[in-house]
Amino acid sequence: MQHILALVALVPAVLAQTYYGCYTEIPARALTGSSLIDYENMTIAVCEAHCTGLDFDIWGVEYGGECYCGNALAQGSFPAFVTDCAMPCPGDAATVCGGPNRLSLYGASEEAPVVTPQPHDPVSETQYAGCWSEVEGGARALAGTSAFSLSAMTVPACGDYCLNSGFLWFGLEYGAECYCGEELSVNSTSVAEADCDMPCSGDAATTCGGSNRLSVYQWV
After folding, report:
1. Under DSSP, is residue 56 helix (H, G, I), strand (E, B) or coil?
2. Which region is the signal sequence (predicted)?
């Protein structure tokens, strides 16, 4: 019996948490309550213990070794593509601790936290604007923000990502790339539709641009 009790004592406690998904970071921080940085030993459990010990209900791990706490998400943080969170936790390489400007988000409640997207004009649908070229010299035709997904990119997913970021123009490129902007660059030119012929990584029945070519849409 003593051996059995000793074995049970070695089993770690089940974490009282819900995984909400991969969320975007914002310049002023999505979770502003407290932070803990440890690029050598960070795990999800370490972050949970730090945050719940300070009575915070939500915690997220970012860039492998960064832990942030709060009771609500700041405006502008919202669900991102799950593959954006792909950096292993240094203290437990079998688990993921966010990514660059991305939080693997957890909390004590079964319900995901309320998100408040960046403000934008009232819109209801997307309108296709054609196939357009990228800009020469390293600039972007849509220069607002971007997202990538090798397995889940679709036109609606890109549209939602850009709208939540506060941008009404969006374009899909090279099958898995999503770009957002306030307007299309004047240095981008309209090109033949045949140039935008790469299937979307998350929906092979639709096209998501091509090499240096954008399938461009606008929220209206």
Report:
1. coil
2. 1-16
The CA distances from residue 111 to 61, 63, 107, 145, in Å, are: 19, 24, 9, 28
List the structure tokens of 42. Answer: 């960070």
13: tokens are 């406690």
Strands 126-133 and 34-37: unpaired
Ranges of residues in the chain whose predicted pLDDT is under 50: 1-14
152: three-class secondary structure by DSSP:
coil
Tokens of 142: 């849509």
**pTM to 2 decimals?**
0.82
Q: In the numeric block, which tokens belong to residue 169?
A: 């123009």
Q: What's phi and psi for 179, nearest 5 deg?
A: -125, 145
Which pLDDT value is given to residue 14?
A: 42
Sign for the CA dihedral angle at 65, 71, 76, 78 comes to: positive
Q: What is the pLDDT of residue 16?
A: 62
Distances (CA, A) of 99 to 62, 120, 205: 5, 27, 30
Q: Six-digit token pair at 180?
A: 């957002």
The whole-angstrom separation of Cα 34 and Cα 22 is: 19
- Residue 159 backbone phi and psi in degrees, to 5: -60, -45
Q: Give the CA distances from residue 114 to residues 20, 79, 128, in Å, rounded to whole numbers and listed in that order.
A: 11, 11, 30
Q: In this structure, what token pair is assigned to residue 124?
A: 């209801």
Helix (H) or strand (E) holding 164: helix 155-164
Predicted local distance difference test score (pLDDT) of residue 124: 95
- Which backbone phi and psi does 107 adopt, to 5 degrees? -165, 170
pLDDT, residue 10, reads: 34
In contact, 57 and 107? CB cutoff 8 Å: yes
